[in-house]
Design goal:
399 residues; alpha/beta; Aminopeptidase; eight-stranded mixed β-sheet; four-stranded antiparallel β-sheet; 35% helix; elongated; binds zinc ion
């Protein structure tokens, strides 16, 4: 079976590369993936998979479709994100973005192409597996706002009957063609925040008569850092970043307000909420001390992405038998980045893996940079790993 999967991945590679390059040339931002959705639907129709449905009803973007072996078994979902970024492409590849200020600089063009290729492989091997595969082409992983996955999941239908889920990302920091797995936490949750400190303002020569938003804000920033070192356990990981701090316009005026914005990253949402409550305590205490007031907003974003250990172990072992031990790596540390596949992983046991795209002696492709570029022949490996994970898993758990 593994040899057959490898052979089909090789066979479909050039077509899948042409899919990727078409999508790369025609990028669309989150919640606006109209032509991308149409292209995916057309390719699925060409394969005879005409029973596809719209993934996100509000925008009519994204697609999902089932490949049913017509044999009893479990259902595994495989997700690809489909949106591009608001960035100008800097490289001069022949399939460069046709849209000014929009480009596939995270690799989601490759994720779409990969999943279309996987669909073709699965259709060829339909007699060799049990159960059902649901392919999900999900809009707006990069946002805006809360991103596409939470909406897709909240509509319920996509996860109906799904027992397990898989997802994959090309990996700029990973060696070309190697598969990377991570047990447990892989990506962080975020809580974005903004705080506005207010005062009546006044003249700097009479500091005792008005609260000073600059003093309150600067002391708050120092005390926020002590939440990380003195209030939470040193064994719990967290980031509390202040991204902006603005206030004042004149050298001798106490301003009427100062604003700060930032983000909190944790692998445990409860820890994030504890940090929020301590930030509020600090603001309350400082405002009481200096007679100021403040307003704040804390927006809870994507939850942490936690891989299911059993499923990850299974997929990792199957990938070792496919690619060999040297080509499969375990990621030691999670990242404080975020990934909205976490909404799916919150609902069903999931495994999110990566395939490296960094070639030896070449500069590391940096995701979200205008120069992000990678050799799409790696899709041969990603298709094989993806199809192999799906088929071997469905066959192993179906009694
Ligand atoms: Zn990204
Ligand atoms: Zn991405």
């Amino acid at each position: 079976m593994k040899e057959k999967i490898k052979q089909l991945s090789k066979e479909y590679l050039s077509e899948v590369i042409s899919f990727r390059r078409h999508i790369h040339q025609n990028p669309e931002l989150g919640f606006e993936e109209y032509n991308t959705t149409k292209f995916i639907q057309e390719q699925l129709n060409n394969m005879g998979l005409t029973n596809h449905k719209v993934a996100l009803k509000r925008t009519k973007t994204g697609v999902y479709v089932d490949i049913d072996s017509n044999k009893p078994g479990k259902t595994v979902l495989f997700r690809a994100d489909i949106d591009a970024l608001p960035l100008e492409e800097e490289s001069n590849v022949e399939y460069k973005s046709n849209v000014k200020g929009v480009a596939h600089m995270c690799g989601h063009d490759g994720h779409i192409a990969n999943l279309l290729g996987v669909a073709k492989i699965l259709l060829q091997l339909k007699d060799s597996f049990k159960g059902k595969v649901r392919l999900l082409f999900q809009p707006a992983e990069e946002g805006p706002d809360m991103g596409g996955c939470v909406e897709v999941v909240n509509e319920k239908e996509v996860l109906n009957g799904v027992d397990f889920a898989l997802g994959f990302h090309v990996y700029g920091a990973g060696n070309f063609g190697k598969a990377y797995f991570k047990y447990g936490p892989m990506y962080a949750s975020f809580i974005d925040w903004d705080i506005k400190i207010k005062s009546n303002g006044g003249h700097c020569s009479e500091p005792h008569k008005s609260a000073d938003p600059i003093i309150i804000g600067s002391q708050a920033i120092n005390l926020f850092q002590s939440i990380l070192t003195k209030i939470k356990s040193p064994l719990d990981n967290a980031v509390l970043a202040v991204g902006t701090f603005n206030g004042g316009s004149n050298s001798n005026v106490i301003p009427t307000e100062a604003t700060m914005t930032g983000t909190i990253r944790t692998y445990d949402l409860e820890l994030g909420r504890t940090i929020v409550s301590k930030m509020k305590s600090i603001m309350n205490s400082l405002c009481e001390l200096y007679n100021g007031t403040y307003e704040s907003n804390f927006l809870e974003g994507y939850p942490p992405l936690i891989n299911n250990n059993q499923l990850t172990k299974f997929v990792m072992n199957e990938t070792i038998s496919l690619l060999g031990k040297d080509n499969v790596k375990e990621i030691d540390h999670p990242t404080f980045g975020c990934e909205d596949f976490s909404y799916i992983a919150n609902e069903v046991p999931s495994c999110y893996f990566k395939i490296g795209i960094h070639k030896e002696n070449e500069i590391e492709p940096l995701h979200h940079s205008g120069s992000f570029e990678w050799d799409d022949s790696v899709l041969e490996t990603s298709m094989a790993v993806s199809a192999n994970a799906i088929i071997s898993f469905l066959n192993a758990i179906t009694k």
